[in-house]
Write a structure and sequence with these properties.
Two copies of one chain form a homodimer.
Chain A: H1 12-19, H2 23-31, H3 38-51, H4 57-64, E1 69-73, H5 85-99, E2 103-107, H6 118-130, E3 136-139, H7 148-154, E4 159-162, E5 174-178, H8 180-193, E6 199-204, H9 209-224, E7 233-236, H10 240-254, E8 258-261, H11 264-276, E9 286-290, H12 294-298, E10 304-307, H13 310-325, E11 335-337, E12 340-342
Parallel strand pairs in A: 1-2, 1-3, 3-4, 4-5, 5-11, 6-7, 6-8, 8-9, 9-10
Antiparallel strand pairs in A: 10-12
The first copy, chain A, binds a DNA duplex through residues 11-13, 21-25, 27-28, 31, 35-37, 40, 55-56, 58-65.
Chain lengths: 349, 349
DNA sequence: TTGAAAGCGCTAACAA
DNA sequence: TTGTTAGCGCTTTCAA
């Protein structure tokens, strides 16, 4: 007969008994070791070790009102794109959280399904907030018109955002972002160095500050290098097919020699066009993507792409969260990080 | 002066007072509504709604010893590969868990870092277990020699596994897996239909039941179709470069007309070889990958690939978890799901 | 420096 | 059908 009733984990009382002290002393040994006489501390620590004691999180949470859990909403996976940033970001965040003594609690919902209302968008946040399941949120989809940062602020819900409050200059929440313009500028400068004259931009057609930001990097760096911009710009949906037709049009009608794209998805579309026409990426036409997805990394020849420093972003977000929860002063400045350029065959040769 | 002290969420007592009943009656209204007289129930529910009451999870967890949290260890992201299954899987799992009233708690650690010991491998599990942070685990990396399923079993820790207990025929835990052999066989049959004669296999060289399983599908389906296997098989590390050289060798030395690969990563390597030689995937040489990664979906021409039904896997895992936690009888059978084949240009025309 | 008492918000067991 | 009592395991007073 197999016993599948695990012994209940030891409690503070068990440790106290074993060490011959009161429960409170054990609690102090864990949370305020300085308060104990060294020899008592040693005795308690030995008992903790022998019993394999770990404080019960529910009890601690109930008492201290801190779950040490960070809520993160996972937006629906996008297939048939090269949008890989979320995956790398989650990994980085788990790691950064762990180092700060937090775990990540994932929840879902929000856009992706048809008929998503504003209420649906915040429902997941609302539930976790009311049930005090998490200490704070990390909010990632801060695109235009998304109600959640506003909603969270109005609720006094603790959160930090990955993404600037573009649309709300008076927003007071902490945020971390990546300088997309600087990233794209890196790509343009790289192309200028390689002698390109007609450097085109393929952006998104939906109203988006992120797209505008990245486009700015192209416009500025191109102009700074004395290269033309007129007629070298197009805005399309963020799909492979759109990138494909947009790139074809830019090659045909604008004589572009290089294509800088707002995403790897669009850049892959551009590579399709080159493949269709028997052109060699990097030799005949250069292509630059954005996000350094797995696709960019492994596509034959390789795709040069702007890489967001997501590990740094994660660390900065967790740091901001700690400051927020510790009610530290905030200067309202936010953290803006600079991406790098992963150079590969599509601009090489 | 901005008030940033949110009002504390209402408690059971607040609802009770408002509805003019006792706390216990409110609790029953939530957990055993049948016990209440309909008119009382209505009154309590109205009070719950007015106050926006949600039960405090910590208190409930402490009392019922159920956190409604599922632990999942995120293994380090693999870059420079096309291994995308984990991402899709996490999304599917969040969704399936939500429908069952659970949230996912992510933790990290384990292989990936140098000097990982067996103790490191189980540390994350151990911590969460001792602190009663999660109700159960979903274990994904059940490869050979991984101590954690054994360790969890010995601890009587509740868990279900994504992956068969290949190495432990006497294992008694619940599991869900995908029939890799059947998936690869689908690929081979598809190639046979398209008239291929010399269908080669590129597998992994590290000792792995998963690799063996997938290889079996190739060997069986190839033999069943009366196609040769001798000399048409190679085992290499799971990298793009290895896939590239392996495919080159199979084309040169074995006259392969089709390459079936144990992963999309290897398949992408094969596409590199074709690109190097100016061969057209799907016309000159066919390539089949495994996992239907984003890379397979968007690479120019498209890569035909075996797609694991991860949404079904997630649902089956959560169902198994519920059965486990409800202490239902278990017949020891496990759940084996069948993948599909996503057909694209690399086997097309 | 250590211990005793109280209570976080909830639900199981029992009583009315 | 509803209410009362007790206690889950912890930490925050406060007293010794």
């Amino acid at each position: 007969m197999r016993d599948d009733t695990p012994a209940p984990p030891p409690t503070l009382a068990d440790v106290a008994e074993r060490a011959g002290v009161s429960r409170q002393t054990v609690s102090n040994a864990i949370n305020n070791p300085d308060l104990l006489r060294p020899e008592t501390l040693v005795r308690v620590q030995a008992a903790i070790l022998e019993l394999g004691y770990r404080p019960n999180r529910a009890a601690r949470h109930l008492r201290t009102r801190a779950s040490h859990l960070i809520g993160l909403r996972l937006s629906p996976a996008q297939e048939f794109t090269a949008n890989a940033a979320m995956d790398r970001f989650v990994h980085a965040l788990v790691e950064a959280s762990r180092e700060a003594g937090y775990h990540l609690l994932l929840f879902s919902g929000g856009p992706g399904k048809p008929d998503t209302t504003a209420a649906d968008l915040v429902r997941g946040y609302d539930d976790l907030l009311r049930s005090t399941a998490v200490d704070a949120f990390i909010v990632t989809d801060t695109y235009l018109g998304n109600p959640q940062t506003r909603w969270l602020t109005d609720r006094h819900a603790p959160f930090v955002a990955f993404g600037r409050p573009w649309a709300e200059p008076d927003a007071t929440h902490r945020w971390v972002d990546v300088d997309g313009a600087a990233g794209v500028a890196l790509g343009v400068e790289h192309l200028v160095e390689r002698g390109h004259e007609r450097i085109a931009w393929i952006g998104w057609d939906h109203q988006s500050f992120i797209s505008d930001d990245r486009r700015t990097g192209w416009a500025r760096a191109t102009a700074a290098a004395g290269r033309p911009v007129d007629g070298l710009e197009v805005a399309v949906p963020d799909t492979v097919d759109a990138g494909r037709s947009a790139s074809a049009a830019l090659l045909d009608r604008a004589g572009a020699t290089a294509l800088v794209c707002a995403s790897d998805t669009l850049a892959i579309g551009a590579l399709h066009t080159l493949a269709d026409r028997g052109l060699r990426p990097g030799r005949d036409v250069a292509v630059v993507g954005f996000d350094d997805s797995q696709v960019a990394q492994v596509v034959p020849g390789g795709l040069t792409s702007v890489r967001q420093p997501l590990e740094q972003v994660a660390v900065a977000l967790v740091r901001a969260l700690e400051a927020l929860l510790a009610r530290e002063e905030y200067d309202g400045q936010g953290v803006l990080l600079t991406p790098t350029l992963a150079v590969r065959g599509s601009t090489g040769g």
